[in-house]
Specification:
Layout lengths: L3 H8 L3 H8 L7 H13 L6 H8 L4 E7 L8 H15 L4 E7 L5 H10 L5 E4 L7 H8 L4 E4 L10 E3 L2 H14 L5 E4 L6 H16 L9 E2 L5 H13 L7 E4 L2 H13 L9 E6 L15 E4 L6 H13 L7 E3 L3 E3 L12
Parallel strand pairs: 1-2, 1-3, 3-4, 4-5, 5-11, 6-7, 6-8, 8-9, 9-10
Antiparallel strand pairs: 10-12
Helix pairs in contact: 1-2, 1-3, 2-3, 5-12, 8-9, 10-11
C-alpha cells in the first residue's frame, strides 16, 4: 500500500505538502491539491486513521445512526441516502459509516457509546423530531453534527433544510385559488419536525381564506402508498362533507390517493384535486401519473452535498453562519388540480 512518502517521491514534493494537499489546507494551491489527490487515487493510497487521529485530533470518519425498522436492502430511497452521503464525504477525503440500532434501542446511549470510542468526528442526523433530544445532547458534548431539517425554537446548529412551512402554505393557497376550501392533508408521522411545519403552513393558509383544517381532514402516518390509500378511503367514505382536494406529503402517498379514488369511482381532478410534494424519489415520476401530478419539487438528492459541506465545515470549526443552508423548491403545475365540482 502506498504511503505519503511514496506520493511525495513520485511528485517531487515534501511529505508535508502532500499531507496538507490531501487534507484541503488553504495554503495549498488548487493545481497541487488536484495533482496530489489524483496520484493518491492512482497509487491506491489510504490514510492511516490512527496516525491521523494522533496528528490532527480527527479521525476523518463521519457516522449516521438509523433504527432497525425496515428491510434496508430493498428500500431504494434508503440506499440512495447512504450512497449519496457516502459519495460526498468520500470526495472530501472523509469516511462515512452506518450504524444500525437494535429494534427499540434508546437512541442517546447509542451516540454516547459511539462518541466514547473516539473514532468518529461527527454525525449526520436525519428525520428530526420536534425539539429533538439528539441536538442538545451532542451540543453539550461538543460533538459536531449536521441536521437534515430543523428542530426547536432556536436553530443554533448546522443544518440543511427546505422551507416546509412556506411550501405547504403556498400549496394550500394555490388550491384555495382554484376555489377549494375543503382541503385534506395526508402527511407523515406526527411529531416529525417537517410534518409539524407542513401542517402549520397548511393551517395558516386555510385560516387566511376563512376555512380550517378539521382533525378528520388531517391524516398522519408513514410516507407510503398504503397510507395514502387507506387515508383516502376513510376521507371519502366518512359521514359529512368530503374534501374536494387532497394535499400529499410525498408522491408515494399521492400514488395511494390515486388508487383509492379510482377504486371508489372518483376521478382526478373531476371529483377530487390532488397535489403533492415531490422529493424526486427513485422509480417514481410524478409526470407519469394519469393525470400528471401537480407538485412542489425539491429533489432529496440535492441534500447530500450541502449536508456534507456543513458537517465538514463544523468539524473544521467554521462559523455557524456558513453552516446553515436552505434548498430551493419549485412548483410544477400539471393536470391533477382543477376547480371543485360545484364551481364548474
Amino acid at each position: 500500500m502506498a504511503t505519503l512518502k511514496d506520493i511525495a517521491r513520485k511528485l517531487d514534493l515534501s511529505i508535508t505538502q502532500v499531507s496538507r494537499a490531501l487534507n484541503d489546507h488553504s495554503d495549498v494551491n488548487e493545481e497541487t491539491r488536484l495533482r496530489v489527490k489524483a496520484a493518491a487515487r492512482a497509487m491506491n493510497y489510504h490514510p492511516n486513521i490512527s496516525a491521523r487521529k494522533l496528528v490532527s485530533g480527527r479521525s476523518g470518519i463521519i457516522g449516521l445512526v438509523v433504527p432497525l425498522s425496515r428491510n434496508f436492502t430493498s428500500d431504494a430511497l434508503f440506499m440512495e441516502v447512504v450512497a449519496g452521503l457516502s459519495s460526498q464525504f468520500s470526495g472530501r477525503g472523509m469516511q462515512f459509516v452506518l450504524h444500525i440500532m437494535q429494534q427499540d434501542e434508546p437512541v442517546l446511549p447509542v451516540y454516547q457509546r459511539l462518541i466514547g470510542k473516539g473514532a468518529l468526528d461527527g454525525f449526520v442526523l436525519l428525520d428530526p423530531l420536534d425539539d429533538d433530544a439528539r441536538i442538545g445532547f451532542l451540543q453539550r458534548l461538543d460533538v459536531p453534527f449536521v441536521l437534515h431539517g430543523r428542530s426547536g425554537a432556536v436553530q443554533d446548529y448546522p443544518y440543511f433544510d427546505i422551507e416546509n412551512e412556506e411550501i405547504f402554505r403556498d400549496s394550500t393557497l394555490f388550491l384555495a385559488a382554484q376555489g377549494h376550501r375543503r382541503i385534506a392533508l395526508v402527511t407523515g408521522v406526527e411529531g416529525r419536525s417537517y410534518v409539524t411545519a407542513r401542517t402549520r403552513g397548511c393551517q395558516a393558509a386555510l385560516h387566511r381564506t376563512g376555512a380550517s383544517l378539521p382533525g378528520s381532514f388531517l391524516r398522519h402516518g408513514d410516507m407510503t402508498e398504503a397510507h395514502g390509500l387507506i387515508s383516502t378511503v376513510n376521507l371519502m367514505t366518512a359521514p359529512g362533507p368530503r374534501p374536494t382536494a387532497i394535499l400529499c406529503g410525498n408522491v408515494r402517498i399521492a400514488l395511494g390517493v390515486y388508487q383509492a379514488l379510482a377504486s371508489l369511482g372518483l376521478s382526478v381532478p373531476g371529483d377530487v384535486s390532488v397535489m403533492a410534494h415531490d422529493d424526486h424519489l427513485p422509480n417514481l415520476r410524478a409526470s407519469a401519473f394519469f393525470p400528471a401530478l401537480t407538485v412542489t419539487k425539491s429533489p432529496l438528492r440535492d441534500s447530500w452535498k450541502p449536508l456534507a459541506d456543513c458537517l465538514a465545515g463544523a468539524v473544521a470549526g467554521l462559523p455557524l453562519a456558513e453552516l446553515q443552508r436552505l434548498g430551493h423548491c419549485e412548483r410544477i403545475v400539471r393536470d391533477s388540480v382543477a376547480p371543485p365540482p360545484q364551481d364548474r
